[in-house]
Design goal:
Radius of gyration: 12 Å
Largest sheet: 2 strands, antiparallel
Strand order of the largest sheet: 1-4
Number of helices: 3
Number of domains: 1
Helix content: 25-40%
Structural class: alpha+beta
Strand content: 5-15%
Shape: globular
Length: about 90
């Protein structure tokens, strides 16, 4: 099993740990930092998501058609949204 995915309306909600249960764990990742700790990357836009998910597809699990639709709905609803991992 991989790391959780946390979805936030914007970066201020991320700092408050105010995540959106509706979208959390739409997929999981197995990517780690070089020191073995959880991935500390933060995805800050749909364009960044498109780039990041393409480059890191080998680390992503559970991103089936339904999950991808949920992620795309998140970006439509919250264009200033943020995704992080942990």
């Amino acid at each position: 099993m991989g790391q959780h995915t946390w979805f936030y309306k914007d970066s201020s909600n991320r700092r408050k740990n105010n995540h959106l249960d509706k979208y959390n764990d739409s997929f999981r990742i197995s990517k780690r930092n070089p020191d073995g700790t959880y991935c500390d990357e933060v995805i800050k836009s749909k364009a960044h998501w498109d780039e990041w998910s393409g480059k890191n597809s080998e680390f992503i699990s559970g991103l089936d058609e339904r999950a991808l639709e949920r992620v795309n709905n998140f970006w439509e609803e919250f264009p200033n949204g943020v995704i992080d991992f942990g």
